[in-house]
Amino acid sequence: MTVIVLIAAPEGLRGHLTRWMVEVNAGVFVGNPSKRIRDRIWELLASRVGDGQAVLVEPAANEQGWAIRTAGKDRWYPVDFDGLILSARLRR
Fold first, then answer.
1. pLDDT, tens only, 41-90
2. DSSP string spanning 7-22?
3. Which pTM does this prediction carry?
4. Is 62 helix (H, G, I), strand (E, B) or coil?
5. Which of 7, 21, 68, 77 could bond 31 through an S-S bridge, CB–CB 3.0 to 4.6 Å?
6. What residues have CB less than 8 Å from 26, skipping those under 6 apart?
7. CA dihedral 56, 60, 43, 19 (to 10 degrees)
8. Residue 22 in contact with residue 51, Cβ under 8 Å?
9. CA distances from residue 20 to 4, 14, 16, 50 in whole angstroms, order as listed
């Protein structure tokens, strides 16, 4: 299963995601696209998110069973802490 969360993203991105995923709440998309489709969706999101934020949670062969990707401004970053993925934010 794949989950994508969009925050303050351009309106067209939400409509584009509904082609492959279901919007279960405002800006929260759930689906099961193939890896190839998921990678292409992410390329599009990362290039067009602008001042918004995008987070993608996808299946992975690790201890947690998932991995995370982020794009946009003012965001949390995934950090590998001894094999455990945690989120960190840069100090200002």
1. 999 999 999 889 999 999 999 888 999 999 988 777 788 888 788 888 77
2. ES--HHHHHHHTTTSE
3. 0.86
4. coil
5. 21
6. none
7. -70
8. no
9. 11, 11, 8, 21
Which tokens in the block code for residue 69?
Answer: 């990707």
Strands 53-59 and 66-72: antiparallel
Cβ burial 54-84 (10 Å sphere, 16+ → b, else e)? bbbbbeeeeeeeeebbbbbeebeeeeeeeee
Q: Which two tokens stand for residue 43?
A: 């390329």
Tokens found for residue 56: 């993608």
Question: Which tokens hold the place of 42?
Answer: 């992410």
Pairing of strands 77-81, 53-59: unpaired
Collapsing DSSP to helix, strand or coil, 36 comes out as: helix
